[in-house]
């Protein structure tokens, strides 16, 4: 006998099956579009990172070439993009007044340092460091090594500004004896730790704001 109920049920199932398949296809298309979009974003990010690293490498090479003479003379060090200058070349003992040779050296660094400032997202940070010996009691100019390292960093910063570095692209910081490059065990190691470093850092306006 002809079963009309079964036919009606079969007829009703097909539209439901069609709707289900359409939904599955829709989800698949959405996933495909999302995957392609994610892949495109990753490709773009990778390309930007490669370009950034290539620019940094080119800047490093240019900086090394521009600083070839003082590097060869041993008056400065260049490591990880940081220009390190011995405190003995810049200042007298427990002094924040630039020696004539130190001022001349600082002025010679201005043009090479402008390579960093070609990138609007960079600032120059001038950092002062000391060894671990306390300031002599008879010295009335500085309270402690924090004070001495801060004043030396400020002195170098002002000298760079006077020599042509824009004052809005540079700032000073102090670290006292907190970040030695070698252990303070003798006169030679302490002399290495008494230094000023000049390094590029990201501009604050490029950093995400805290909520």
List the topology elements.
Layout: H1 4-66, H2 68-73, E1 76-79, E2 82-86, H3 87-90, H4 100-108, H5 110-117, E3 122-129, H6 145-162, E4 170-176, H7 187-193, E5 195-202
Parallel strand pairs: 3-4
Antiparallel strand pairs: 1-2, 2-5, 3-5
Helix pairs in contact: 1-5
Describe the structure.
- The structure is a single chain.
- By secondary structure, the protein is an alpha+beta fold.
- It has 2 domains: 1-55; 67-204, 2-Layer Sandwich (60s Ribosomal Protein L30, Chain: A).
- It contains 7 helices and 5 strands, in the order H-H-E-E-H-H-H-E-H-E-H-E.
- It has helices at residues 4-66, 68-73, 87-90, 100-108, 110-117, 145-162, 187-193; strands spanning 76-79, 82-86, 122-129, 170-176, 195-202.
- A 5-stranded mixed beta sheet has the order 1-2-5-3-4.
- A hairpin with a 2-residue loop joins strand 1 and strand 2.
- Helix 1 (4-66) runs antiparallel to helix 5 (110-117).
- The radius of gyration is 31 Å and the shape is elongated.
- The termini are far apart.
Task: Give a brief description.
With 211 residues, this protein is an alpha+beta fold. It has 7 helices and 5 strands. Strands 1-2-5-3-4 form a 5-stranded mixed sheet.
What descriptors fit this protein?
211 residues, alpha+beta, 60s Ribosomal Protein L30, Chain: A, 2 domains, 5-stranded mixed beta sheet, 55% helix, disordered C terminus
Number of helices: 7
Taking pLDDT < 50 over at least 5 consecutive residues as the criterion, the unreliable ranges are: 206-211
Output the strand order for the largest sheet: 1-2-5-3-4
Number of strands: 5
Q: Which class of secondary structure composition applies to the elements?
A: alpha+beta
Q: How helical, in percent, are the residues? A: 40-55%
CATH topology of the largest domain: 60s Ribosomal Protein L30, Chain: A
Shape call: elongated
- CATH fourth-tier homologous superfamily of the largest domain: OmpA-like domain
SSE topology string: HHEEHHHEHEHE
The count of domains is 2
Q: Report the major sheet.
A: 5 strands, mixed
What is the CATH architecture descriptor of the largest domain? 2-Layer Sandwich
Return the average pLDDT rounded to an integer.
83
Q: Approximately how much beta-strand content do the residues carry?
A: 15-25%
What would CATH call the class of the largest domain? Alpha Beta
Rg (CA only): 31 Å
Q: Report the end-to-end length measured between terminal Cα atoms.
A: 75 Å
